[in-house]
Structure formats: C-alpha cells, structure tokens
C-alpha cells in the first residue's frame, strides 16, 4: 500500500514541479520584455513580475521538486531492486539535469531582480523548451523502463527539438512583423496629426489676410 501512496504523490509532485518550471520561465520572458516599455509602466511591471516569480519559485516550484524527490526515495525504499536497473540510472542522470535547470532558474531570477540578467526573450523562449525534452525522456523511461525502444525514442525527441526550433523562429518572425506593423501605424498617425496641424496653422495665417 505504501508503494501506491508514494507513487501517487510522486506523480502529483511531478505535475506541480513542472507547472512551476514552465510558468517561471514564461514570467522571465515577460519580465525581460517589460524593458521595452516606457516608464512608469516598466518599473511597475518589473516589480510585479519579481514578486510573482519569487512566490512561484518558493511556494510552488521548489515544494513540487521536494515532493517529487522525497516520494521517489520512498518508492525506491519499497522496491530496492530497481536500484540496479539501467533505466533508473539513466533517469537519475536526467533528473540531475532537471535539478540543475531548477537551480539555474533560481539564479536567473536573482539576476533579473538585480537587473544583471543578460538573457534576451528569444533565448529564454528556447530555454523554456529544455524541461519539455527532459519531461518526455524521463516519463518514457519511467513507463517503458529497460524495454524502452531506443531508436523510436531518439527520433521522437529529435522531431520534438526540430518542431520547437521551427515554432520559436516562426513566433519570433510573427512578433517582428507585428511590431513593424504597429510602428508603421504609429508613424502614419503621427504624419496625419502633423499634416492636420500644418493645415490648421496655414488657415490661421490666411484668415486675417481674407478679412
Ligand atoms: C529523484 C528522482 C526520481 C526517482 C528516483 C524516481 C523514481 C521512480 C520510481 C522508482 C518509480 C516507480 C516506477 C513504477 O512504479 O513502475 C517512478 C515512477 C514515475 N516517475 Fe519517477 N523518479 C524520479 C523523478 C521523476 C521525475 C523528475 C519525473 C517526471 C519528469 C518522474 C516521472 C515518473 C512517472 C510519470 C512515474 C510513473 C510511471 C508508471 O507508473 O508507469 N519521476 N519514479
């Protein structure tokens, strides 16, 4: 019975941990993009994102990680034979990468708060895909274990990487075109306003002459 409890709580921990990791880097993207806003909007947005990031990391993401790892230890205590299995060794290596990603995100959060983060929004978007790959590989290992079909898994992950890279490029292009369209609209509006002011000024000058 303990095994089922550990497993259920392990899976719940995984869901919470990943929800936190995915949302955290999305907040980093909005935080970095707030730099493009004029003051006072920029200061207000950055302060708000800083609070949201700290709460998300401290109240959701890190506890999710602690529950996942603690329950995994419980699972291994109930089934110690798995400790000799290859799938578990590979899974543990990938979990080590995931833990490194988790703490790296904590470091980025500190740099964003201090205004010393050198990452751009496109780089952060790419970084946000890393846990997806780890999630896929770890879950496949947990489910298939030593009977995981290696070649189809590799193709699946390569396909996923290509899809993500293409999506990021297309999205960056769409954002650039949207920005250019917005700039053009603002320019047209400014031109119209200037033209209207010039003609109003010209008619002010002509009116006394007609009188
Ligand atoms: C400290 C790290 C971890 C260890 C030692 C560990 C170990 C285990 C063990 C022993 C099981 C039971 C397997 C079974 O009942 O068949 C399990 C299940 C599972 N683990 Fe982990 N795990 C760890 C982290 C993770 C992470 C980070 C994820 C997600 C990315 C994950 C996803 C899962 C899933 C989905 C299952 C259920 C698999 C099934 O029922 O078929 N685990 N884990």
TrEMBL record:
<dbReference type="InterPro" id="IPR005265">
    <property type="entry name" value="HemJ-like"/>
</dbReference>
<keyword id="KW-0349">Heme</keyword>
<keyword id="KW-0472">Membrane</keyword>
<feature type="transmembrane region" description="Helical">
    <location>
        <begin position="56"/>
        <end position="77"/>
    </location>
</feature>
<keyword id="KW-1133">Transmembrane helix</keyword>
<feature type="binding site" description="axial binding residue">
    <location>
        <position position="91"/>
    </location>
    <ligand>
        <name>heme</name>
    </ligand>
</feature>
<dbReference type="GO" id="GO:0070818">
    <property type="term" value="F:protoporphyrinogen oxidase activity"/>
</dbReference>
<dbReference type="GO" id="GO:0006782">
    <property type="term" value="P:protoporphyrinogen IX biosynthetic process"/>
</dbReference>
<keyword id="KW-0479">Metal-binding</keyword>
<comment type="similarity">
    <text>Belongs to the HemJ family.</text>
</comment>
<feature type="transmembrane region" description="Helical">
    <location>
        <begin position="6"/>
        <end position="25"/>
    </location>
</feature>
<dbReference type="Pfam" id="PF03653">
    <property type="entry name" value="UPF0093"/>
</dbReference>
<dbReference type="GO" id="GO:0046872">
    <property type="term" value="F:metal ion binding"/>
</dbReference>
<keyword id="KW-0408">Iron</keyword>
<comment type="pathway">
    <text>Porphyrin-containing compound metabolism; protoporphyrin-IX biosynthesis; protoporphyrin-IX from protoporphyrinogen-IX: step 1/1.</text>
</comment>
<keyword id="KW-1003">Cell membrane</keyword>
<feature type="binding site" description="axial binding residue">
    <location>
        <position position="10"/>
    </location>
    <ligand>
        <name>heme</name>
    </ligand>
</feature>
<feature type="transmembrane region" description="Helical">
    <location>
        <begin position="89"/>
        <end position="109"/>
    </location>
</feature>
<feature type="transmembrane region" description="Helical">
    <location>
        <begin position="130"/>
        <end position="148"/>
    </location>
</feature>
<keyword id="KW-0560">Oxidoreductase</keyword>
<comment type="subunit">
    <text>Homodimer.</text>
</comment>
<feature type="transmembrane region" description="Helical">
    <location>
        <begin position="154"/>
        <end position="172"/>
    </location>
</feature>
<protein>
    <recommendedName>
        <fullName>Protoporphyrinogen IX oxidase</fullName>
        <ecNumber>1.3.99.-</ecNumber>
    </recommendedName>
</protein>
<feature type="compositionally biased region" description="Low complexity">
    <location>
        <begin position="189"/>
        <end position="203"/>
    </location>
</feature>
<comment type="function">
    <text>Catalyzes the oxidation of protoporphyrinogen IX to protoporphyrin IX.</text>
</comment>
<dbReference type="GO" id="GO:0005886">
    <property type="term" value="C:plasma membrane"/>
</dbReference>
<feature type="region of interest" description="Disordered">
    <location>
        <begin position="188"/>
        <end position="211"/>
    </location>
</feature>
<keyword id="KW-0812">Transmembrane</keyword>
């Amino acid at each position: 019975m303990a095994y089922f409890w550990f497993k259920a709580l392990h899976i719940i921990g995984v869901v919470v941990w990943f929800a936190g990791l995915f949302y955290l880097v999305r907040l980093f993207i909005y935080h970095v993009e707030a730099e493009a806003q004029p003051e006072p909007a920029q200061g207000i947005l950055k302060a708000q994102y800083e609070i949201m990031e700290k709460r998300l990391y401290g109240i959701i993401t890190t506890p999710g990680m602690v529950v996942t790892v603690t329950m995994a230890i419980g699972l291994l205590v109930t089934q110690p034979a798995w400790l000799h299995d290859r799938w578990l060794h590979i899974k543990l290596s990938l979990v080590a990468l995931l833990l490194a990603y988790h703490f790296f995100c904590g470091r980025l959060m500190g740099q964003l708060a201090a205004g010393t983060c050198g990452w751009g929004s496109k780089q952060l978007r790419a970084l946000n895909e890393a846990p997806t790959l780890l999630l896929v590989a770890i879950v496949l290992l947990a489910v298939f274990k030593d009977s995981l079909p290696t070649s189809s898994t590799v193709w699946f992950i390569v396909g996923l990487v290509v899809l993500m890279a293409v999506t990021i490029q297309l999205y960056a292009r769409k954002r650039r075109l949207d920005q250019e369209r917005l700039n053009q609209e603002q320019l047209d509006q400014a031109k119209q306003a200037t033209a209207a002011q010039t003609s109003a000024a010209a008619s002010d000058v002509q009116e006394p002459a007609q009188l």
